[in-house]
Amino acid sequence: LMNYVYFLPMTSYLGCKGSDLGFFCAVAVYWLVLLAVQLRMPTILVPKLPHRHTSLLFFLVSVGACLFVMGISGLYTGFRLKLNISDVYGIRAEAAAYDIPGLFSYILSWMTVILSVLILYWLQKRRYVAVGVLVVVYLFYYSISAQKSVFLFLFLLLFCYLLYRRWMYRWCAGLLSLGVMGCWVLEAGAQFLTPMSLFVRRLMYVPVQLSEVYSIKISKVIGEYMGTGSSANNGLVGDMYANLPVVLGVFLMPLILVILFRLLDAAARDIPQKIYIGLCVFFAMSFCNGSWSTVLLSGGFLMACIFLYLFPVQKEEHVKNEQS
Is the whole-model pTM more than 0.85? Predict the structure, then answer.
């Protein structure tokens, strides 16, 4: 997926705009090393815990997560519920001023992943009342800081669980191409710019552009350089430029990423694809947009691996879902 949403847009971006030869070579080597390591690194096998040891844990975490999110929402926002994603920057500025204690701030950032896995858990158990409660709590969580990615992730999660089939993985490139064409038709025919701006410009080309800018500017001045007056995300290759010498980074950063991919593979072993495919898409976009260490810790990647490892799925249920 990262090939389709980051590296292929990178090729069209560099082809249309042109770029420094050094940046072009760094991207090419980075991409080739990432593909090679992904193909050659073996999977990791980790024994799973028995089902009976984790079901109670998921119930207790569900109760605790709901109480935690609603407590933060009540203390800092007065139980504000906002479902509009077009006017969020005022709420983000307000959220940046919240004096949430450090540990609670970290736990709150993990709630995107924790609530998502809990929704999936109760969906596969067909406890729809619990699912409804968690969805409402998730919307209150989104309303705390109004991050668009959090709001859209809920729909991605539900779409993947309800509609995803294994054949879609093989046709990923074609489906993404149809999606981009659909965005173009909406823009050209109906003057509806939001899908093209959000899903093509923001998710695909902005990280690519930021990666190039990182090769010539440091992070704290990118906002001024781009004319926004603020700092910015760094993009996948930009993360390498920000933290490592290029000669070392083009080899080390792909290795780190593939190790993290294998960790997620090991945690999701024996779980039906429709349960974790939404998380894979979410983290692919997260790695393309930001620093791998931020995604690992505050971005919830490590927490997702823990919860997927503990996810209680019966063996016969796994077989039935995979066959469908």
Answer: no
